[in-house]
Design goal:
Layout: H1 10-21, E1 27-31, E2 37-42, E3 47-52, H2 59-74, E4 92-94, E5 97-103, H3 117-134, H4 145-149, H5 152-167, H6 176-196, E6 207-210, E7 219-220, E8 228-229, E9 236-239, H7 240-251, H8 262-272, H9 280-284, H10 286-294, H11 301-306, H12 311-342
Antiparallel strand pairs: 1-2, 2-3, 3-5, 4-5, 6-9, 7-8
Helix pairs in contact: 3-7, 3-8, 5-6, 6-12, 7-8, 7-10, 8-12, 10-12
Length: about 350
């Protein structure tokens, strides 16, 4: 559900659509998915999706996303279709918050770690095609992502937060013992990465335009095998092997407990590599790259410690810590198999 309570209701949504878009809505249905407030709009001719973003969403980010979507559409990538207002704009503002309207995409979504082998490999194919299409898009930079997510300094900052959270766990937290163990494991793994990983390697990896948040959660499927990719707000230049590793870990049902199926992972990387050539550093350090980004994060643990109703975030936190342990323990095997199989 949306991270901020909506300022909209059925009446003012209908009024907005009529005034700003010349669209007469018959019915409005709230959809609880994602961080925006989302409404399905029914009209006589077609259906739409209206999104009301939180106050932190900027006009620049919406312009960035619509430009990328229009670019990818011209490259034959299935993306959402934004609807322009009467003022020839892809967004409007209501009570200081940004609102956008898209054509409704008929299809279905999948939850994390519910994909069979076919759906898993399809995800790699889509990511490869999309990344290849973005190769010539000129208006993206790295936004400091390496320093924020993949540096020694980012791990050091993360360790401080893990230690603080470990010391501040509620006494009545029903998972207190589990949290203490998990946070201590994440601290130990983070310190080991700081002491033993050569962070200069990251700059030698393949860094190029990519989605920035690509996963099964950003895919809408239909029965015509036309899968649509959504949500390009976070698109930027980044180490693409990270997006490959992350997206694999979120779709394969065999990875539901955080333990990857290395053979399927190798096939996933092979499929992506049909479109984007990966170098030796990508293949050798794929597991460590992903581990660096997630190992020092307290996300999920902190939110549940603050509010015991957030069981979904609790499950996600436990999943990612199991994933960290797996990557930490099996990084050499992943490295060896990726290098061996992709040289064939």
């Amino acid at each position: 559900m949306g991270i901020q309570k909506s300022n909209l209701n059925e009446k003012n949504i209908k009024d907005l659509l009529e005034e700003e878009y010349g669209i007469e809505a018959i019915n409005v249905e709230k959809i609880d998915r994602g961080t925006a407030n989302i409404f399905k709009i029914f009209t006589k001719e077609k259906d739409y999706i209206l999104k009301e973003f939180s106050e932190g969403r900027t006009e620049e980010s919406v312009i960035k996303e619509t430009n990328i979507i229009n670019f990818l559409k011209n490259k034959n990538i299935n993306v959402p279709v934004y609807v322009k207002s009467k003022q020839d704009s892809y967004y409007i503002k209501y009570e200081s918050r940004i609102v956008i309207l898209q054509q409704y995409i008929n299809g279905y979504t999948m939850e994390n770690n519910t994909g069979d082998y076919s759906k898993t490999i399809e995800s790699a194919k889509i990511l490869g095609k999309m990344t290849k299409a973005l190769e010539t898009y000129e208006n993206l930079d790295d936004e400091g992502i390496i320093e924020k997510w993949f540096s020694k300094e980012s791990l050091e900052k993360g360790i401080k937060k893990l230690v603080e959270l470990k010391n501040d766990l509620n006494e009545d937290n029903p998972y207190k013992i589990t949290f203490e163990r998990d946070l201590e494991d994440k601290i130990k793994m983070s310190k080991d990465m700081i002491d033993n990983f050569n962070f200069n390697i990251i700059k030698k990896m393949t860094i190029m335009n990519s989605h920035g948040d690509y996963s099964v959660q950003q895919l809408i499927y239909n029965d015509k095998n036309e899968t649509t990719v959504i949500d390009f707000e976070t698109a930027k230049k980044l180490p693409v092997i990270w997006e490959v590793m992350r997206s694999y870990s979120y779709i394969d049902k065999k990875a539901k407990n955080g333990e990857l199926d290395i053979d399927t992972l190798v096939d996933y990387v092979k499929e992506f590599s049909k479109y984007i050539q990966l170098n030796k550093y990508d293949l050798k350090y794929a597991a460590q790259m992903y581990l660096i980004q997630i190992v020092s994060s307290a996300f999920g643990y902190k939110q549940y410690n603050d509010d015991y109703s957030k069981t979904g975030l609790l499950e996600f936190a436990l999943f990612r810590t199991n994933l960290c342990r797996y990557l930490y323990k099996n990084s050499e095997e992943i490295s060896s198999k990726l290098q061996m199989e992709l040289k064939k």
